[in-house]
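re: ur question from earlier - yeah i can do the single chain one, its not a big deal. heres the input i used so u can compare w yours
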Amino acid sequence: MICAFLKNKTFAIYLGVTGLGIISQLTNLITLLNYFVPLGIPNGLSKIIAEENIFEKERLKKIFLSSLSLVFFPVVFFSVIFFLFSGLISEFLFESIEYESYIKIISVFLPFIAFSSMLEGFIRGLKVINLYVKLIIISNIFNLLIIIPLVLLYGIKGAIIGILTSNVIYITFSIYYLTKNKIIDKFEIIKEFDKELFYKIIKVSFVFLISGAFFQLSLLMLRKMIIADLGIYYNGIFQSVIGISISYFGFIFLSLSTYSFPTISKMSDIDEINNELNINVKYIMLLMVPLVILVFSFRYLVISVLFSKDFFPSESLFVYQFLGDYFKALAWAIGIWLVPKMKLKVFVLLEVILNFNLIFIFYIILLSGQNNILYVSVTYLIAYCIHFILNYVFSKKLIKFEFTKENRKLFFTSIVVLISAMLISQLSYIAGMIAALPVLALWFYLSIKKEEMLEIKKIFLSVIRKYT
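and the output i got, formated as tokens:
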């Protein structure tokens, strides 16, 4: 998190709003390729190894190298295509071929991007969480030492090379660990593959591919529309807002994936699943409401710390963006049961609808002549409100899920508190900062029982222990 903050701060200070707009579009492309080119297999690989408790080194080696063989030709194909058509891709993304050289650099690094993703998924599946976190931290520190001088010396091109170099660094440290522990002693193309295991990995991989790649593609298209209609400067403004969302969403995703996902996987009783989902909902509301109110109430300070004063225009997007984040988190909390219980068609359908809405609603708004960056966050809020409602409706239909009486009360109380705190802060920034803590204290007093606070503390500590 600290390394990500320092990178963003470096980009903001030395590249400015427009530079960050260019970097964000290229980084979005890299992330999309990271999901799409390996066919979603890294996540499927991670899930299958973890769930089936595979520990035999020979079998682990065969699974990893077989999966690697599957993505070899797609990686080569896309590397060549991106290099040859770099001008057209630049024109598509930026309405200009000026950034063709950056696309070529990405195409050269594409094999490293895919290989790094495969290694990360494999190591996650081994359930050596401490090692996984250690590799991420060490790689980020080394990458930071490289990226800052590159940005200072070569600007945007240096930033792109620095971002891509992180994959090479991660590969280096990961291979060192795998060879040291003799999990993998050499790399080779394997033609024979366990067919049953293959279908399991592909089935799960497809879900993660749809979910991850679709969202990154939606962001890419949103950025393209912003650049085409409003300019690269406003893409930088949008990136500062989405960057703040991603910063605190990391912990929420971590909490749900490390605690609720495996817990629900082991459940077979519908009532137990519903009870767990209601615990998720309460936990998310109790976490999100203070986060949203504090970040919004102190938004100018947050922008100054994470970016610079040049990004102050982004504060007008915060009210819609963070309300959208609230509904996004609730949708995750309710819909998290779909994947472990293999309701994959429903999960994919909801993801397709969400990402269609993200693009289509903003496109319609632009067509109506409302050329204002504010509407990208309005779109975000509308899309995730719909996503939340659909997750609730499908969960109610399939497993008879309903909010408990306490959660219904907390939900409506939270909406009132969020809107009230935001209105006060919109009217007066100083009044908003002064009112934030008293409003939250009153909300906590009305919303939480002592025993519920102890339960939330238990969940929180269990997540922390996994990563310390």
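Residues 230-466 form one domain. not sure if urs matches, ping me
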